[in-house]
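assembly run, all chains below
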Amino acid sequence: MDDAQAIKYLKDRKDLNIRNLEDLALILEKLGTAEPGAAEPGTAEPGTAEQGIKESQMAAPDPQLAETRLLSLKKALLILAHCRDTDRTYSFERENRIGALKSVLEEPDVVIEIITEGMRIAEVKSAGTVIGQTQDALDLMANADYLGARKIMIREEQMDPAFFDLKTGMAGEILQKFTTYRVELAIIGDFSKYPGKSIRDFIFESNRYGKINFVSSREEAIKKLTKKLTK
Amino acid sequence: MRQTNNVYNVPFLLSLRIMEQKDYILREIEKLGMLLRAIVTRVFGGNANNALPEEKQFEEVTSALLENADFDLKHLSGWMMPRRSNT
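ok done. output:
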C-alpha cells in the first residue's frame, strides 16, 4: 500500500482521531525499533520504555526484519506527518517524534545554527541540497523564525543547481518569498562559474537592493547581514 | 402502493439518528484508543519493561488490531512478516 492509499485507508476509518493516530504511530515506532532486551522480558534497563525512538536502536541482523522495521518507521512518519497536517493544534512532542524519525530514516531536517553577531543570524549547516523548491525556502524561513532569526546564511551548494538557471524561474520565485516575508538572505559561494550576463545582472541587482546577498565568504555574509543594524 | 402514515416528527427522529451515529463514532474512537493503549502496554511493556519477545511483537500487534478493530496493519504497512525464530 503506497502512502496515498495508506492515508486514504486511515481517513476512511471513522474511529481514528488524532490521538488514536498518534498512538498507532507510536506502536509502529516501537515495532520499527529494536528494543535492547526486548527478546528477554524483564531484562530491559530501566528508563528504556520512554515514548518515541532512539537512533541507536536500529540494529537488526535479519534483513527481512530490518525491512519490516524500516517500513514500520516510514509508516509511523507518514501517520505523524498526516496528524501534523490535519490537527489544528501544534504539538512539540509530535514534532520531536517526526524529527527523530526523519533522522533515523536519514531525511534530516534542516539544521540551522544561530550565530550571534549583534543580531540573530541563522546559518544553514545541513549537508546536501536544502532549498530545492519554494516550499523548502518557506520551511527554512519558518525554522529560522522559530529560533528568532530573520536573517539566514546559506551556501551555494545547499541550493538546487536549477536555482542558478534563471530560465527555470526558481530563483525569482524563491527570492520573492524572502522579500515578501522580510527575511534577509546571504548566499555564500563562487558565482563566477555561472555563465551569462543575465545571472550576473541578477546577482548585481540583488546585492544592490541588499535584502538578498550573493557573497563570496562567510565573513562577508555576516558583514552584509549585520550591516543593516546600524541603519 | 402501500402508504405509511407517519405520525412521528420526522426531523426530530432524524436528529436523534444523527446523534446516535455521533455517539457510535465516539464510542468506536474510544474503543480503538483503549485497544491501542492496551497494545502498547501488553506488547511493549508500557513502563513496566516487560515487553514481549521481539519476534512475537509484530504478530501480536497485527492480530490484536485485526481481531479487535478490523484494522489491517500488515496491509497498511506493506510488511513481509518477520520469520519466527525456532528458539
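The domain at 112-230 of chain A is CATH 3.30.750 (Transcription Regulator spoIIAA).

Residues 36-60 of chain A have pLDDT under 50 and may be disordered.

not gonna interpret more than that til we talk
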